[in-house]
Design goal:
With 229 residues, the chain is mostly beta strands. The protein is built from one helix and 21 strands.
């Protein structure tokens, strides 16, 4: 197991070996992380791309644990302070207008139960492209996950908008994710599940100790699940 460090303000060797020599781009850490590795991310705002490509997300590798909330001088997980060191994963790419934001800020599809996302604010996703068969560009603006058993906790998921389902979080396929200690704030879906949408008959998602404020949709402002046959 390796710890890979990310700090957008680091001025060292940019190799991820410590906070001093941290990667300045989270995508660099995700590219080399493997099963059992941990990624420590220092406070700041990180976007999936510096380009205007809305299809680029933070794609989480299976079995990797990703933690935000560091100031940039810690060596242990228990030294972080997630309330003080706000670490934002933002879909606000391109201009300041929302209509060119990332379709999904984070993609946790095809991940096992050892996969962890913990200690982040996930904001400003905009899944607004309808009629794109197989792309899901209209679902899961904050976090999109098909076939995921990932553990999601200590997050703030806010200001994400989906044209169809799951403004904050979309879980589809065969997903048995854990959703714990998350604040869902001001997420919107035009169809179902302003905060959370759970799709399909093969899901067993554990949802506990979450707070839902100001989420909106036509069906289920907080949570919507497909009917189980």
């Amino acid at each position: 197991m390796a710890i890979i460090y990310v700090d957008l303000n680091a001025a060292g060797r940019n190799d991820g070996s410590s906070f001093l020599d941290a990667f300045t781009d989270l995508q660099s850490a995700l590219a080399i992380a493997g099963d059992g590795d941990q990624i420590f991310v220092a406070a700041g705002t990180y976007t999936p791309t510096n380009s205007t490509d809305r299809d680029i997300s933070f794609v989480i590798p299976s079995g990797v644990e990703i933690y935000g909330g560091f100031s940039g001088n810690e060596t242990q997980l228990n030294q972080r302070n997630i309330e003080q060191n706000i670490t934002i994963l933002s879909g606000n790419i391109g201009s300041n207008a929302a209509d060119d934001n990332s379709h999904h800020v984070v993609d946790i599809s095809n991940t096992n139960a050892s996969t962890v996302l913990n200690g982040f604010t996930i904001a400003d996703g905009r899944a607004d492209q309808a009629n794109n068969a197989g792309t899901n560009r209209e679902d899961g603006a904050g976090i999109f996950g098909n076939n995921t058993n990932a553990r999601l906790s200590n997050l703030v998921i806010t200001n994400n908008t989906a044209l169809d389902d799951g403004g904050g979080l979309f879980l589809g396929g065969s997903s048995n994710a854990g959703v714990n200690a998350i604040i869902f704030l001001d997420n919107t879906a035009s169809d179902n599940g302003g905060a959370i949408y759970i799709s399909g008959n093969n899901n067993s998602v554990a949802i506990s100790n979450n707070l839902f404020v100001g989420n909106q949709s036509t069906g289920g402002g907080a949570i919507h699940t497909d009917e189980i046959d």
